[in-house]
Amino acid sequence: MPATARFEARINTDVQQLLKRAAILEGRSLSDFVISAALSAAKKTVEKNELIHLSIADQQCFAEALISPPMPNKKMQEALDLSTSLLGE
């Protein structure tokens, strides 16, 4: 994939030296190393904040609620009735 965007950052010398050292240890360019590390961190952050992980028991409970939803309680039925009367649905 050809690079089409540019990204610049100001960092202190110690951070730059550490990044260069890590890049050399992996046999990569500094840019490649930084981009790869940033991309990995970004993907983890997005996944952590956008995906919901459920245990097997929670998955089963969720599926059962979708397949056979419980009957609405009195307050829920009142809210549904009000919504229907206001929205005309």
Automatic annotation (TrEMBL):
<protein>
    <recommendedName>
        <fullName>DUF1778 domain-containing protein</fullName>
    </recommendedName>
</protein>
<comment type="similarity">
    <text>Belongs to the TacA antitoxin family.</text>
</comment>
<keyword id="KW-1277">Toxin-antitoxin system</keyword>
<dbReference type="GO" id="GO:0006355">
    <property type="term" value="P:regulation of DNA-templated transcription"/>
</dbReference>
<dbReference type="InterPro" id="IPR014795">
    <property type="entry name" value="TacA_1-like"/>
</dbReference>
<dbReference type="Pfam" id="PF08681">
    <property type="entry name" value="TacA1"/>
</dbReference>
<dbReference type="InterPro" id="IPR010985">
    <property type="entry name" value="Ribbon_hlx_hlx"/>
</dbReference>
